[in-house]
């Protein structure tokens, strides 16, 4: 099972960043999203498609339907600059799969 | 405070072995699945393996199956990754991570991660 993410997304501060994660019938799977800043461990920012862990700002939201899951960051701030990874569990292989990651650059 | 601390990384020659450890504190270790995830230099995250709370369920990525062995010692609140027949392409920072939910569930996300330990495979 393959998850496809755009390598990069550039956004201006205060605008909205949308990060997509494509996979065959991904809408039937639970998608999780991680933020990783340079030199740091990943941080869970969204789980089960659209649930935010405690401490994650409401500016972060998620959706999942069909063949695409999306992490949306509203009112982007400089501190949101990071790599973002989607992740699912593939039942056919019993493997947890990560997408290739998307680098979000705040202009 | 939940903490996971990896150790055991280092420089090893191709074909060699290393055993990584993940020492934990701040939560009931015996209730949570633990995963290992790696990241090659300049690359993305790659899931390696996971082990359920009672060691009943383990799974490995195709790239390490047959060479790596995951285990845990609930009395020591630690997980281990025995890495044999190491290859140059195994060079990466290895993270251990805790499932967010204290129940067996392959779909669970990971909510706490260690800072990682670097494994370098080179002659």
Question: Can you offer a commentary on this structure?
Answer:
The complex is a heterodimer of chains A (107) and B (123). In chain A, the strands form 2 sheets. In chain A, strands 1, 3, 4, 7, 8 and 9 form a 6-stranded mixed sheet that branches. A 3-stranded antiparallel sheet of chain A has the order 2-6-5, with no helix packed on it. In chain A, β5 and β6 (68-73) form a beta hairpin. Chain A starts with 7 loop residues before the first strand and ends with a strand. The model of chain A has no long low-confidence stretch (mean pLDDT 97). With 107 residues, chain A is mostly beta strands. Chain A contains no helices and 9 strands. Helix content of chain A is 0%, strand content 46%. With 123 residues, chain B is mainly beta. Chain B is built from no helices and 11 strands. Chain B is globular and about 40 Å long. Chain B has strands at residues 3-7, 10-12, 18-25, 34-39, 45-51, 58-60, 68-73, 78-83, 92-99, 110-113, 117-121. Chains A and B meet through β3, β7 and β8 of A and β5 and β10 of B.
Name its key features.
heterodimer, A: 107 residues, mainly beta, six-stranded mixed beta sheet, three-stranded antiparallel beta sheet, 9 strands, 0% helix, globular, B: 123 residues, seven-stranded mixed beta sheet, four-stranded antiparallel beta sheet
Class from helix and strand fractions of chain A: mainly beta
First-to-last CA distance of chain A? 33 Å
User: What is the number of helices of chain A?
Assistant: 0
Give the CA-based shape of chain A.
globular
Largest interface comes to: A-B, 28 and 22 residues
The portion of residues assigned to helices of chain B is under 10%
Compressed to H and E, one letter per element, the order of chain A equals EEEEEEEEE
Beta-strand fraction estimate of chain B:
over 45%
Helix content of chain A: under 10%
Oligomer: heterodimer
What's the overall average pLDDT of chain B, rounded? 96
Rounded radius of gyration of chain B (Å): 14 Å
Biggest beta sheet summary of chain B: 7 strands, mixed
Please tally the β strands of chain B and state the result: 11
- In N-to-C order, the SSE pattern of chain B is EEEEEEEEEEE
